[in-house]
Amino acid sequence: MNVDETKKIVLIIEDEPPMLHILFDKLSESGFAVLQAKDGQEGLDTALAKHPDLILLDVLMPHMDGMTVLSKLREDDWGKNVPVILLTNVSPDGNDVIQSIVKTQPAYYFVKSDIKLESIVEKIHEVLSSAS
Prior knowledge:
- With 132 residues, this protein is an alpha/beta fold.
- It has one domain (9-131): 3-Layer(aba) Sandwich (Rossmann fold), CATH 3.40.50.2300.
- The protein is 43% helix and 19% strand.
- It has a 5-stranded parallel sheet, with helices on both faces.
- The longest helix has 15 residues, at 117-131.
């Protein structure tokens, strides 16, 4: 995939095709160069190869879950600082694993059932502007 080098690159790692397409379309319309991966292993490989500016990461996925992807990213020199926004169907209050990761990592998260695409785009802009 040819990526416009003037645009910020967002990698979406999401195993649900409808959600992946909606996010891809919204972020593309919002001026981002968008990469996508359909499972955790593909997402980790893409992230480490392409070094996106930000990662949208689903938590529950086949082949490698989002928490494992995040943990492996943080072991890499580049990956330890890449901003990550988690997408989950689990409320953070109900999942100790997510809460502990979010407390110790520079990550944000959205509960999919409450998702507003504009909120995700705003958070991406906020995170990328503070990382610059």
